[in-house]
Prior knowledge:
mainly alpha
Amino acid sequence: MEMTFKSLPLKFFYSYENTLCDVYLRLGDEKFVKIVNSGDSITNDVLRNFENKNITSFYVLKKDFDQFGMELVPHSAAPVVKDILPDHKELNALLGSLGINLFTCSEVSKTYEKFLSDISTNKHISNLLKQMIFNKKRFTYDHSYLAGIISIELAKKFEWSLTSVKEKLMIAAIMHDLRMPEDIVSIADSNNLSDSVAYNILRAHLKHSELMAEDLSKEDKVAQDVINIIKDHHNLSSVNLTPLTMVFIVAHEFVIKLYNYQLNPEMGPQALRDIEVFFKGSVFEKYVIELSKIIKSDPLIMAS
């Protein structure tokens, strides 16, 4: 039986002392050679040696890619100290390689800190936020961070650079999945679920935005625009979506597509093509066109 391989940036492997699966090197169009067995160590010296030979990607079998995929992505480190936000070094490197202005990343970190302080009196929402921030599974926090930053960059294309607008997008991003169980969020937070998806995943997909919007409607420190974005971030068919909601939906969909390619910066252009197809002919298309002016067609590999 023919083996199918998937590529992963070499830099992802600096995060692991031991590999999660067999790792291969590509020698030609159809020729792959195994270089590391599952569970074996792969040292930083070995990785640097490959990089010195201009090798930027390793390959794994598709079955392993599907099984371990979410563990083979760059991610923030969950904080261990109260009131300290995660380190976004790897995520910021990814964003920079795609063409995102890194000044936006520093702006967002300040927004996070201010919002966490403002909302601290609401114990329910504050606890939900802490559960997400300190969770060792990083999908909810990380993809929210990425979606927020990309939506802000996209909003700038429409000259919506007011601090209040950027704060609304970022707060919507950090809050939008708080009512989604962490163990299924990477599956359920998608706009193209198949008909055969499990009931609990489908229900989470359908209900989490409504539940979170209801929670926030009781909080006077959260703007109505934020609640609208959260309530409608999966509502692709509504004719009454606000421009900010549409910006967020396009940015969010792009991030989900990036995760389909394990946040490989080389696949940014392909993720963009995916959403161009997904939104073609819809009211979202003009926002996708502007996003295409941001995302580099030949992204740099993430910096060390």
